[in-house]
Amino acid sequence: MLILSRKVDESIMIGKDVEVKVISIDGSNVKLGIDAPKDVDIIRNELYTAVKDSNIEAGSQNLDAASLAKIDIKKR
Fold first, then answer.
1. Structural domain count of the chain
2. Residue 54 lies in a domain
3. Contact by Cβ (8 Å): 56, 45
4. Could you tell me if residue 73 is inside a domain?
5. Which residues of 6-23 are buried (b: 16+ CB within 10 A; e: fewer)?
6. Which residue range is the domain that position 38 belongs to?
7. Residues in the chain where the model's pLDDT stays below 70
8. Distance between CA 61 and CA 71 in Å, rounded?
9. How far apart are CA 23 and CA 9, in angstroms?
10. Cβ atoms within 10 Å of 39's Cβ, excluding its own
11. In 1-76, beta strands by DSSP E
C-alpha cells in the first residue's frame, strides 16, 4: 500500500485519467473530490463489500424448484 500525505487543494493522479483531490479536512473527516471518466465506477468500499458479500450469500443458497415457485417477482 502506498501512503501519501496531501494538504487541502493538493491531489494525486491514478493513471492518466483519475485525479483525487483533497477538498477539505475537518478533524478526522477528509472530503475528497474524484475526477474520473464516466466509464470508471467509483463506489465506497463499505458498499462494495456489502454487495459482494450479499452476492456470495445469494449464490450459495440451495433453492429447490418449489422454493423458487414461491417467490413473488411482482413485489420486486
1. 1
2. yes
3. no
4. no
5. eeeeeeeeeeeeeebebe
6. 1-62
7. 63, 68, 73-76
8. 14
9. 6
10. 6
11. 11-14, 18-26, 29-35
